[in-house]
Each structure stands twice: as C-alpha cells, then as structure tokens.
Amino acid sequence: MIKADLHTHSTYSDGSLNIKSLFKSAKLSGLGAIALSDHDTMAGIPIARKEADKAGIKLIPAVEISAEDPGNSRKVHILAYFIQDSDLIEKVCRPWLEKRRQNCLNALEDIRRMGYPIDADDVLQYTESGVIYKQHIMRALMDRGFTLSVYGELYNRLFIKDGGERYKSSYMSAFEAIELVLQAGGLPVLAHPYIYDSMGLLPALVKSGLRGIECFHPSQNAERIKTVIEAAGKYGLFLTGGSDFHGFYSSRGAALGSVEFFLPEKGWLF
The pTM is what? Predict the structure, then answer.
C-alpha cells in the first residue's frame, strides 16, 4: 500500500504552491501518489507529470469541477479522476472560469474604490492560469501590509455581506458536471459531501452516474465518515480521501498528506 493524497490544488487554481513545490512537499510528506485536482482546469497536468517522475510519485490526473445544485443554487463540487479527454474539460469549463475571472475583476474595482491600491497586475502574479480567485486578491493585500491573514476581518468585510457571499460566481449544475466527466472518460466523485450539505443530493447524483464519494477529508469527523461509508455501500460507490490542500490559502489549514489514505501499489488504475 502507498500513502496517497487525492485532493490537492496548485497555482493553476486556488493553491498557494506551484506544481514543482507541490511535488517537493509531497515527497517530503512521504506520499507515494498524488492527484492534482485544480478547479475547473487540467492545464497543470503536463507539468505535474514531469514533476511526478522526478519525485518518484505516482500522478493521478484529476480536476475538481465547481458546480451547484440546480434546485437551490447551493455549491456541489465534483472531483474527477483519470480524465482521458482533458481538452473537453478545458473547452467546457473555460467559459465558467472566465465568468469567475470577471467576477473577481469586478470585486477588485470595488476594493480599489474602497481605498486599497491594488490592480489586476498585482493579483495576476499569483496565478498561472490567468483566473483570479478571492485568495489571490487577499494575498496581494497581505503583501502590501493591509492584513496578516487570508481569512479574517478584512476578508469578511470585502467578501461577506449579510451572512452571504458577495461576488458569487455562477456554476454549471452538478448533473452537467457528472455528464461532462463521463464524456471525458473520467470517474466522477462527490467531494467533501458535508461542506455544502450535499448528502441529500446523493441519490440523484448516483442516478446521473456518480462513481465515488470523498470519505476522508479534513471536514469529516468519525460520525460523518461512518455515514459516508454506509452510503457508499448502499449505492455502490468507491471511497476516496485527501487533504484538499491549498497551502496557506486553506481555511482549514490542512497539510499535504495530513489525511490518512492509502491505495494499493497496483490495481487502482495505475
């Protein structure tokens, strides 16, 4: 068995480490397999293959699709593993990423008007995909001394309003995301099912073609793990686990490889 982390992010989406640093950290963490699962893009996978070879780590090509429940607009994230047609993923996800980018540019204009002298160039240096996330804006503000942390009083003032999310992006439906993953030859998995209260949607997701569920995650306690394992048995889903690593952008502070999860050295599609 090899230690694996099947949920990680890099500077191609909303992670703070570039791919080279990510694999160096994976090696130091004793990981034998890692899934690079950046949000809505697989642009970093070619570089990840090279770095995985250098580090002697097995790479699982993956992506995390940001989606929503069309019934209530609540977020639902779909992890996808072993994608065969990454071009299809890029083609379908690119318009959604562009909406997110424009959404954050709009937020940036408001933030400038509030008296914080940062612009798009200041923020774009932290991303390798050209897509801006709120974390990138906060990092620019940190580097200029306006705050000491990504999350906290300033983040809430800029991005939270009346208990809800300001500058909320739009997303494809979770069912569209599953269909996309299947069309691209991948395995769709429900990510962190309790963060967005997704368990109630599970029967419909399974009917749409869901193949797995993330069981071991920083958001999961023993009771939740037990419930997920039981649901996986009921619906015939395989289990995955990962740290959901974002570097210092993580609101949970989960370290790479901190979630105990192991895969057979041979037999899990390696």
Answer: 0.95
